[in-house]
Each structure stands twice: as structure tokens, then as C-alpha cells.
Design goal:
This protein is an alpha+beta fold. The protein has one domain. The protein has 4 helices and 8 strands, in the order ββααββββββαα. Helix 1 packs antiparallel against helix 3. The N terminus is likely disordered.
């Protein structure tokens, strides 16, 4: 079984814990989460088809992200990639901020406090191979570009949770983007 874990934007969202072998967890958006665990932690059932499609879509469109990162046009900010970090049987998907690309790999710092993996830490400099990217995002003129896993979880929020997210986020989510 796969294990996916990462911090989520601290929005006061509560998650219920399921047995580890039957869950995946992920982060909504590239934000530092200073307080580990719920609230601020999202779990996903192993084999969640929407989540799997989101990570596949992120991989397929990674070239677009790389081109935008190289160009860095006016109004573009917050370039981040997401990667799964492994520590024993635990796998945690964490956002990497301050991203650069050297033509072979991405480089940046971990932007979420790890919860399930203990071999990396918030703010640690890391290198990510393009094949290991599970999501990517940036903000263009206040609008989220990419963030496919973020969109999946945003669609699952209650109206009150969405309102809270929208109030706290530095970007808007166009719910039509990324839907299939």
C-alpha cells in the first residue's frame, strides 16, 4: 500500500484518522504549516482516483511550469513544487518553495512542517528531480495556476471551509480549471 502525507494549509479543517495503510494525506496549498497534525492535515483514501488524476495532470503539464518558472513574468509569484518524502514506511507529500531549476533538477526549501516523516524539516534545502514532482503551482495576477491536488481538496471543502480558505489564501481558485 502507498502512504502519502503532508501538512495542509492551517485553516481549522478537521480530519479523521484512518488506519495508516488505508490512507493518504496531502497539503492543500504551498503554505508553511507551523503546527503539525489536525487541524491542518488532510487525509485521502489510498487509491483516491481524483487525487491520482491530479498528480498525473501535474506531471503531464510540468513543462508548462518549467517554462513559466524560467520566464517569471510580471504578476507571477509563489512558484512551488510538491514531492513525496520517504522515511521508512511513511511517505509525506510536502511543498517546496523558493524553487529554482538548473536544467536537470528543482531546488528549494521545504515549506511545510513534516508530520509523518522525520528525515526532513521545515526550511530544509532539497533537490527534486522532475520525475518526482507530484504537483506544482504558482500565482499569476492573484490566480492559482496548477495546484491540481489543491483543486481536488478545495472542491471537497464545505461552503464554510471554502469561504475561510478564500479569505486566508493569497490567491483565487478558478474551479473550472483542471476539471475533467
Amino acid at each position: 500500500m502507498r502512504y502519502f502525507a503532508s501538512a495542509i494549509l492551517a485553516l481549522g479543517l478537521l480530519a479523521t484518522r484512518a488506519p495508516a495503510a488505508e490512507q493518504e494525506t496531502t497539503h492543500l496549498a504551498g503554505r508553511e504549516n507551523k503546527t503539525p497534525g489536525p487541524p491542518g492535515y488532510q487525509e485521502v483514501a489510498d487509491g483516491d482516483k481524483q487525487f491520482d488524476r491530479a498528480t498525473e495532470q501535474a506531471q503531464r503539464s510540468l513543462g508548462f511550469f518549467m517554462a513559466a518558472l524560467r520566464a517569471k513574468k510580471s504578476g507571477d509569484s509563489g512558484f512551488e513544487v510538491k514531492k513525496a518524502f520517504v522515511d521508512g514506511d511513511n511517505v509525506e507529500h510536502l511543498w517546496i518553495s523558493d524553487v529554482t531549476y538548473d536544467g536537470a533538477n528543482f531546488h528549494g526549501k521545504i515549506n511545510n512542517r513534516p508530520i509523518d516523516v522525520k528525515n526532513v524539516r521545515l526550511g530544509q534545502q532539497v533537490t527534486v528531480a522532475p520525475k518526482d514532482v507530484t504537483d506544482w503551482m504558482f500565482v499569476k495576477d492573484g490566480k492559482l495556476i496548477g495546484g491540481y491536488t489543491t483543486r481536488v481538496f478545495y472542491a471537497r471543502l464545505s461552503p464554510a471551509e471554502r469561504a475561510q480558505f478564500d479569505q486566508q489564501a493569497d490567491f483565487r481558485i478558478d474551479e473550472k480549471v483542471g476539471k475533467k
